[in-house]
# Entry
Amino acid sequence: MPPVVTVANLRKAYGPLVAVDDVSFEVEEGEIFGLLGPNGAGKTTTMECVEGVRKPDAGVIRILGHDPADRSDDLLRRIGVQLQEAQLQKRIRVWEAVDLWKTLFPETVDADGLLAELGLTEKRETKFMDLSGGQKQRLFIALALVNDPQVVFLDELTTGLDPQARRRIWELVLGMKERGKSVFLTTHLMEEAERLCDRVAIIEHGRLIEIGTAPELVRRHCPERTVHFSTADAATPELFSGVPGVSAIVHDGERFSLTGLGPDFISNVIERVAEHRLRVTDFRTETPTLEDVFLQLTGHSIRD
Amino acid sequence: MLRSAAQLAKLTWVEIKIFVREPMGVIGTVLVPVILFALLGRWMTRDLEAPSFVSSELPILAVLLVVIGAVLSLTTILAIYREGGILKRLKATPLSPLVILSAHVLVKLVLTSVTLLLLVVAGRRFYTGPPPAAPWSFLGAVIVVSLSLLSLGFVLASVVRTARFAQPVGSILLYSLLSISGLFFPVAALPGAWKTVALLSPLTHGVDLLRSAWAGAGWAGEWVALLALLANLVICVAVARRVFRWE
# Structure
């Protein structure tokens, strides 16, 4: 199947500031694709170019076979967009917004069903200004889904929300994927990227520095695993120096931390522990996450 | 086309509802002018004979002031929508900017009509000026003038970035044009350059058309004014469409 979104050598500058520099990637049909990076990395600019809200300076974008800059009706009715920090009229009621959006498209889903799905049924008479942050975001998701789009764009969807509201929105995003929609999202939250995205592209200073599934990226850039365990038995670091793949051994009283490479490293440690009949009181493995990958690639944490 | 009409109707209706939900807006644009009008009328009729200006030209001034108010509030509300990211949200939909502008114009026209109607009702009790010789012809003139002036608001509303900026820019432009529109002193009496500006201003032609319609002279003698107003409308719509800023 051809990708739903293809971006090749995208570039966009605001005066002297190059926001997006030579960015290329694809979004496959039916996947959740995430653009991960710190604030100001160029995520929103990239996404808005793909949505057709912004005009790129250079590069080629194809979405469902269209150039988004043309704003063709056929394209606009097949995509759903949630913009970062968007607002509606302060005094528009929830149902009125959905009703208005329904007139923008020839084919739309049932409004009541949509509101129910997003947990907004009880809020349908509420004015936009009286909604909480999470409710506003859910309304924006509703508006993005009104036309039953094939591709959904979600820009910093859960920024500023409390953990509970965030989880609820994650469920909704996973639900979109289940119904066969392709989702393109941006986030600066590692957990969000790990939980939702089939594939992640890491972007910094306007450049795409890595792309792949989270496990792939971890294997590629942080292949080492660490095993922590404690034992009261007499054990010396030398017992483990022969474990295949081991690269570092830290020993502090009863506690051991072994770091090593290779797919069998953890099994090898377990085997060695069993061989010596050590009674282990605590055993834990540490697998690197996207957070570590990001640190490894950029030299700083995403929050810096 | 049909869908645009449906969108326009829906958006207009929603915007009217939203407007009515804001009490200050209703008080400011509809009630205050009518109350002031009625109070002024009461003082004047009590103390002195109404000057001829009041009796003959007041309806025209009233129309223009209400339309100018509408242009200014159109400019301001679009600036607010732009600043608030509401227009940007609409950009990512198949909605055309002309539908958005037209919806707001329709809202303003509805409000203008309500205000005018109330002014007429309020004025009836206090003023002894002549009624319009041909009410329908006058109403037609009001609509043409309103559309033409509101299209000026289209252009302003399309380009002015912030609400804080919108109000003064619009006021300076429109009230200046009103002052040389021929309503207060004849255009012929203006100095050279001003005369040219006045002849290019849709407000001047608006005054001509409204005067003629009020007097019952019909539109036949006013084809220059009518043409100028329609040309202004067409040009402004085209310009607004090109320069419309979503954010």
Observations:
- The first strand of chain A starts at residue 5 and ends at 14.
- The mean pLDDT of chain A is 91.
- Chain A has ten helices and 13 strands.
